[in-house]
Amino acid sequence: MQNIPFVPKAQEYIALKGFTLKDLDEEYFKPILKKAYQRIRSAIMRGIVEGEINDIDVEILSYSVAIAILAYINDKRLSMRFAIAEARRVGAELKKESDTKLLEIAKSLSWDVRKIEHIVGNELYTFAIHFCDYLSVPPPNDPYWKLVNRALVNGYVLIRKQELARLIEEYVRHYVYNKVVSVGKFNPPEALINVVKEITKLWSRRQPKGEEGISGKGGRFPPCMRVLLESLKNGENLSHMERFALTTFLINIGYEIDDIIELFRRVPDFNEKITRYQVEHLAGLRGSKKRYLPPSCRTMKTFNLCPGGDDLCRKIRNPLSYYKLSSRRKMRNEK
Amino acid sequence: MKNEIVRNIFKEYYEKYFNPKENEVGNIKLREFALVPFDSPDTMIRHLSFPTFKDFKQYIVKNIPLHLYYSTAYYKVPEARDMDEKGWLGADLVFDIDVDHIPTECKKEHDTWHCLDCGMHGKGMPPEKCPRCGSARIDREVWVCNKCLRVAIDETMRLIEEFICDDLGIKRNDIKVYFSGHRGFHIHVEDERTKKLDQDARREIVDYIKGIGVKVELLNPLPKMSEYGWRGTIARGIYEFILTLRDNEDLNVFTPREMEHLISKRNILVKALEEGSIEVKLPKSILTKLIKEVISKKSVNIDERVTTDIKRLIRFPESLHGKTGLKVTKVDLSTLTDFDPFSDASWLTSSIKLKVTESIPKIELGNVKIDVTPGDIIVLPASVALYIAMKGKGEVIEVL
């Protein structure tokens, strides 16, 4: 359980040790502070928290210290990036765990999960999770995860081992982020302030340039695209469908390819070459030479990408029309 | 028309007959209440809350409602005006089957619509936009005849049996069904686990029940009939379709070439669907059409807004529906198929003398066939007469 400092057991462990932030000024706790710094640094630089686990105490306590550091910095994007990175590490660890261990972890989150053996198509499904727990973490925006495409029986969704690991990973992402957000104001010990300074410097160097130059050219963004753009700017890992929707939208309202690529620089698994290829493909500069349109409102709703429309949304069927309509209105008003 | 006699009918009802069980609605302290007063039908009083059931009843008798609602949600402070202050704690999972949303054949006989902008009008389900001027401002007049009600009952039964019980695994004891007082049924699930579901989770459930977002690629090779969820449902639907292939020739869904393909593959398809021992793939175009056919038959047409809204107000059990005078009535699952609103959702046993003031389509309400012209004075069972009066098509002259 030491590699997953999120489950209640690990939290109890911290309480037992009676550790407080003030202790960080002591020489003895230096390794914890160092490890906390490494955790965040790794999240910033590589999008995943890496590193050997040598000491359980350091491992668990450094996680809590990292949370405190991020709460003090209070940068939404950085916190999200850290949450994703921690979740990824947990996801990678979980895939190596045995079924029994995985089940134990899921149960410690109060999930109703059972061990089963059932074949769907050619695949072996080894777990069944209650649909309320399945839906309690936002699933990846992939049609395969939609409830309608799942085997659902008597309240339980059948899932495979790696899917249970993925659900726990999503849970961790939320948990970590909410943890950072929920830390109240506190007076940090001096040792912590030094780390905060270093991290802030590191983070600001990693900020993509030229972002401010990008803005809507005339029209307003519909609510759905505003949400996606905001998530992207927060460094969240957008799903395939989310990337597709936002990219095609931006292309069709006249964004430059380079500007779009610049936006994607924030995602944890950014790779310029691949991103450029994909954006150019959607813009019709490659392959089929077909320029793609954004998905319709109906499709956006189906993939849970519609945050609920405003007045203008009632008049349109595609997010693109929202932009066009609002720019036309703006022009009319200016006249 | 709502005259003094109608007012007295409502008043008498709430004073003498309105008697829901104290625990009919769970956790009454945590619910918000709202009502449209009978005497002031253009206002809605919201954010009411009552510490006890007795307080609630006293208030209702003093303020006779035309419509009476409560929140499906539970709040820390139900009377707070601001949503943040209210403190959402959870909400019942609610489904609404409204025959308004279901295109029935008989709508052409009794429903009309007209465009508020250009005046164009027609019969049946209203178009999304006016075919003449393109306006979306369309007014409609709807009636619910016996046939419409049968459709709503069938949909409700399927929703409960196949989706809520079989797939979602909800126990029958946790499901309550109410006639909405007008055009359909409300199905309430009061289950601890579903209470906490957020809006996105509820939308997933809606999409599941409506069969929205089924990915064709995930169903190729074909699933087998014994599988769970939509995979099995689709396999069984395709199976039925394949077995009655020749009878389906009037179905203009497939091109002759596609039909030929299906017929030539029939035996192997049947085998694949039955046993799943062989993998069979269908061309995407054919499979897409087959799936669409199955979904249109097997999905249930619920009103998604009701289920996804976690702060919804819904009619209170045993209150009167101000547009029909019918009672929001709890229906036992075993008697649902025989439900007749004009006898089961009314407490009135008398007759009413009614003056018809506006034209009414020829329609069967309960066991009364209506065939009248404006100006007629007729005696009808009280529930039917009140229904016509509340719809603004007649005036109650006298309760007999």
Description of the structure:
The complex is a heterodimer of chains A (335) and B (400). With 335 residues, chain A is of the alpha+beta class. Chain A has 14 helices and four strands. Chain A has helices at 8-17, 30-46, 56-73, 76-96, 99-108, 131-134, 161-182, 190-205, 223-233, 240-252, 257-264, 272-282, 297-302, 319-334, and strands at 113-120, 123-130, 152-153, 156-159. In chain A, strands 1-2-4-3 form a four-stranded antiparallel sheet. In chain A, helix 2 crosses helix 3, helix 3 crosses helix 8 and helix 4 packs antiparallel against helix 7. The model of chain A is unreliable at 209-216 (pLDDT under 50). Chain B has 400 residues and is an alpha+beta fold. In chain B, 34% of the residues lie in helices and 20% in strands. Chain B is built from 14 helices and 18 strands. Chain B has helices spanning 4-17, 53-62, 83-86, 107-110, 146-167, 192-195, 199-210, 229-243, 256-264, 266-275, 284-298, 304-308, 341-344, 382-390; strands spanning 33-37, 45-48, 65-71, 73-75, 88-91, 93-98, 112-115, 121-123, 138-141, 175-179, 184-189, 313-315, 329-331, 351-356, 363-365, 368-370, 377-381, 394-399. Chain B is globular and about 70 Å long. In chain B, 39% of the residues are buried. Chains A and B meet through strand 3 of A and helix 7 and helix 8 of B.
Give a quick precis of the structure.
By secondary structure, chain A is an alpha+beta fold. Chain A is built from 14 helices and four strands.
List keywords for this structure.
heterodimer, A: 335 residues, alpha+beta, four-stranded antiparallel beta sheet, 4 strands, globular, B: 400 residues, 18 strands, 34% helix
**pLDDT under 50 segments of chain B (min length 5)?**
none
Q: What is the tally of beta strands of chain A?
A: 4
N-C termini distance of chain A:
66 Å
Structural class of chain A: alpha+beta
Number-wise, the strands of chain B total 18
- CA gyration radius of chain B, whole angstroms: 24 Å
Overall residue-averaged pLDDT value of chain A: 83
Largest sheet of chain B: 4 strands, antiparallel
Apparent shape of chain B: globular
Q: What global shape of chain A is seen?
A: globular
The helix count of chain A comes to 14
